[in-house]
Amino acid sequence: MAAQERSLSVEGKNIQLFEGGAGPPLLYLHDAGTFWWMPVHDLLAHSFYVYLPVHPGFGNSEGGEEVEEGQYVICGSPQTVRQKLREGIKSLNCRILLTAFQLGNMPHHLATKNMELFAREVMPYLREEFP
Fold first, then answer.
1. Whole-number mean pLDDT of the chain?
2. CB 8, CB 15: distance < 8 Å
3. Is there a contact between 54 and 15 (Cβ–Cβ < 8 Å)?
4. Are 41 and 54 in contact (CB under 8 A)?
5. What is the CATH T-level fold of the domain 4-129, as seen in this structure?
């Protein structure tokens, strides 16, 4: 299923957005870099209406300087991550969350640690957001 491409203004920056599909909305938060995730979008679009923003500084998205300053990545303590995810979920009225825990050349053991910490310290506190 082909995605529609458009530009979305976020805090004064143009962000490249791919969207499309059929079904409930799903915000696909992928890792940065090349467009390897487009086939995943196409598969998800059979069951969901997928919103896939391209990270600032990648593709046709502006704002690469903010990535380096840490303004476009949800990271921090479990409490901080819970708070930022709650805000995003509520503002987008999104009921499905797809994340990436490994970026670039991060070692496998750190990616695994990220997943375990998220499962133990973040997911249980977000259950009320997903009825």
1. 82
2. yes
3. yes
4. no
5. Rossmann fold (3.40.50)
State which H helix or E strand residue 34 sits in.
none
- Whether residue 125 has pLDDT greater than 80: yes
Angle at 30 between CA 27 and CA 13, to 5 degrees: 75
Instruction: Please say whether the beta carbons of 21 and 49 come within 8 A.
Output: yes
**Residue spans per domain, the chain:** 4-129
Residue 2 tokens, joined: 């082909």
Give the residue from 88, 75, 81, 76 showing the smallest Cα distance to 129.
88
- For the chain, the C-alpha Rg in angstroms (whole number) is 15
Q: What is the pLDDT of residue 31?
A: 65
CA–CA gap between residue 128 and residue 131 (Å, rounded): 6
Tell the burial category of 2 from Cβ atoms under 10 Å away from its Cβ (0-12, 13-18, 19+): exposed
